[in-house]
């Protein structure tokens, strides 16, 4: 628990800034999608995303009313989930955080990447227009872009990704994408060599209680 609190404190420091000092990132962090988060696994090989402790105002579905048109892992290894409503609809930040990257990026088209205080990063792409820039602090539910078909896309939608330390994983572990609701669970992220394993975690106390 102590290590988790220390880690969260370190990750929260870049967000605790006033209006005159915005968080800054390295040149690579503002130019590349797959970038490790500095210090994320400095205290061990596990971190936990406590979605079960988030209040209603601390999260938002990225495209309210959206329907999944292409799931994670399809089409030979789709790195995210495609969600569609209509052209130029408002895309919203999934959680509080700071914009690490906002720019056109190859097949992604116009792209926004947000780094969150718990180490999670969310990515939103093919945007018609980005409404934020690198260094901007955003709140959950804040408009960050408009849906488009920039980059390699055949229809207006948002390509939504979730990443830990640069590695993508199934966004359906974070959101119930069919119901457009947050999964109020604890997510365990384990660094295993050069890979990150992400799965739902049942705390020991609950396991012990279930065995009674």
Automatic annotation (TrEMBL):
<feature type="domain" description="M23ase beta-sheet core">
    <location>
        <begin position="77"/>
        <end position="171"/>
    </location>
</feature>
<dbReference type="InterPro" id="IPR050570">
    <property type="entry name" value="Cell_wall_metabolism_enzyme"/>
</dbReference>
<dbReference type="Pfam" id="PF01551">
    <property type="entry name" value="Peptidase_M23"/>
</dbReference>
<dbReference type="GO" id="GO:0016787">
    <property type="term" value="F:hydrolase activity"/>
</dbReference>
<keyword id="KW-0732">Signal</keyword>
<dbReference type="InterPro" id="IPR016047">
    <property type="entry name" value="M23ase_b-sheet_dom"/>
</dbReference>
<keyword id="KW-0378">Hydrolase</keyword>
<dbReference type="InterPro" id="IPR011055">
    <property type="entry name" value="Dup_hybrid_motif"/>
</dbReference>
<protein>
    <submittedName>
        <fullName>M23 family metallopeptidase</fullName>
        <ecNumber>3.4.-.-</ecNumber>
    </submittedName>
</protein>
<feature type="signal peptide">
    <location>
        <begin position="1"/>
        <end position="19"/>
    </location>
</feature>
